[in-house]
Write a structure and sequence with these properties.
A hairpin with a 2-residue loop joins strand 1 and strand 2. 58% of the residues lie in helices and 11% in strands. It starts with a helix and ends in a 27-residue tail after the last helix. By secondary structure, the protein is α+β, with helices and mostly antiparallel strands.
Length: 306
């Protein structure tokens, strides 16, 4: 039996698993809501649900001023995304990509498998030595690298017919976005850019499913449960299948204005907004926030003393 067949059977078995303890709690439900937006490819809704409304508005303004590309800056090689879309949307992109595939990948199944294996090992070593990750992040990323490496070693990445279909799908989706350089992202704004990227996100998932990595199935089978909840802090257990592996992690959440948000996302956004404020300070004659207003970080502004 092939590795792909084993993976399909394993995924099928997971569908019958029971909900995790605490699945009905608000923190666990908040995590599922986030990933459901991704299942629908609704990147704008995902971004809105990730941060308090005041921060979202400030992020929109920071994008318009050229000081932020959140949440795209959380993606690997995010700075290459405009160039990638531009290359895929170019008039002769299909022919050029097909030539490159035939010259470098077509018929090289053994070499591709070895490259996937080597990249997996390199990725694990890199994560182990990377000082920016905490223990939980490191454990999660190692699981991801192993699952993706195993998938890539079994996937038909050197298949010419699949490659032709892949190129056609991705080039059409890139053109549909209307985003071909950073100027287009700037002009569209944060919400506009995320909305335009929706068909491209769907196309990427379609391509990966064709190669045996159905991400929507992984999202559909994702389970969450409550590990602990104390006041406005909670820890949620997350499990989901990826390829032939079951990925497990715990995530910290914080409640702000009655809603639960990922602590890591809040910290990343606060860093982005701090840099944006430093790059574009308010006018000296701008009035201070009114007492009781949200300052954009989820905190309330105290009334000034006379």
């Amino acid at each position: 039996m092939s590795v792909c067949a084993v993976a399909v059977l394993a995924v099928g078995c997971r569908r019958s698993q029971e909900p995790l303890p605490g699945a009905a709690t608000e923190p666990a439900a908040a995590v599922r809501e986030l990933v459901q937006h991704l299942q629908r490819n609704d990147l704008a809704a995902y971004a809105r649900a990730s941060v308090p409304p005041g921060q979202y508005a400030e992020l929109e303004a920071a994008w318009a001023q050229g000081h932020s590309r959140w949440p795209l800056d959380q993606l690997p090689l995010h700075d290459k995304l405009p160039a990638l879309l531009g290359a895929l949307a170019a008039p002769e992109a299909e022919a050029g990509l097909q030539r490159a595939f035939k010259a470098q990948i077509a018929g090289q199944a053994a070499a591709v498998r070895q490259a996937a294996h080597s990249l997996g090992l390199f990725g694990e070593q890199y994560i182990a030595q990377q000082g920016d990750y905490d223990d939980a992040q490191r454990a999660h990323y190692v699981q991801l690298v192993k699952a993706l490496s195993e998938w890539a070693q079994a996937a038909p990445l050197s298949d010419p017919k699949l490659a032709q279909s892949t190129v056609a799908t991705l080039t059409a989706a890139a053109r549909a976005t209307g985003l071909q350089d950073d100027g287009d992202f700037q002009a569209a704004g944060m919400t506009g850019s995320l909305t335009r990227l929706q068909p491209f996100a769907a196309a990427v998932k379609q391509v990966l499913a064709g190669y045996g990595l159905p991400l929507d199935d992984s999202i559909e089978q994702l389970r969450t449960g409550l590990v602990s909840e104390q006041g406005d802090r909670a820890t949620v257990q997350v499990q989901y299948p990826l390829g032939a592996r079951e990925i497990e992690l715990q995530v910290a959440l914080e409640r702000r204005q009655g809603q639960w948000y990922l602590v890591r996302t809040l910290a990343e956004v606060e860093a982005v907004l701090a840099a944006a404020r430093a790059a574009s300070p308010p006018p000296e004659d701008a009035p201070p926030p009114a007492a009781g207003d949200d300052d954009g970080t989820g905190n309330r502004v105290a009334a000034a003393k006379p």
